[in-house]
Amino acid sequence: MLKKEDLLGRITINPLIMLGKPTIRGMRITVEQLLRSLSSGISDQELLAEYPELEKEDFLAVFEYATGLVEQEQVFPVRLSA
Predict the structure, then answer these.
(1) Distance between CA atoms of 46 and 14, rounded to whole angstroms?
(2) In a 3-state reduction of DSSP, which class is residue 12?
(3) What's the pLDDT at 75?
(4) Domain containing 16 — which CATH number?
(5) Most buried in the list 2, 15, 23, 81, measured by CB within 10 Å?
(6) Could you tell me if 62 and 11 are in contact, meaning their C-beta atoms sit under 8 angstroms apart?
(7) Would residue 79 count as lying in a domain?
(8) How far is residue 16's CA from residue 38's CA, in Å, rounded to a whole number?
(9) Which residues pair with 23 in a beta bridge?
(10) How would you classify residue 25: left for phi > 0, otherwise alpha for psi between -120 and 50, otherwise beta?
(11) Which segments of the chain are extended strands (E)?
């Protein structure tokens, strides 16, 4: 199993690739694209078949990246008026 920093190293941000969206190892496959595909029910096996340049660790990297974003979220209490 790869370490967290090794996984996150697979996520690259380059303003010249996909308008700077986070991508997988500098390819034109975005983190968003993989998350949308997986959340719509497409399996990782189907994605690996469709994009043979992907590796199983790339999915782990996407999940680690998304987890980091969620961890950074701040929640502020909202007072609801009666």
Answers:
(1) 27
(2) strand
(3) 87
(4) 1.10.10.10
(5) 23
(6) yes
(7) no
(8) 26
(9) 12, 30
(10) left
(11) 11-12, 23-24
Q: What is the pLDDT of residue 80?
A: 87
Structure confidence by residue, pLDDT tens digits, 23-81: 999 999 999 999 999 999 999 999 999 999 999 999 999 999 999 999 998 888 888 88
- Global pTM reads 0.84
Q: Which residue has the tokens 């969620």?
A: 70
The string of DSSP letters for the chain reads: ---HHHHHTTEE--TTSGGG--EETTSS-BHHHHHHHHHTT--HHHHHHH-TT--HHHHHHHHHHHHHHHHH------PPP-
Sign of CA dihedral 60, 61, 66, 70: positive
Between 5 and 30, residue with greater pLDDT: 30
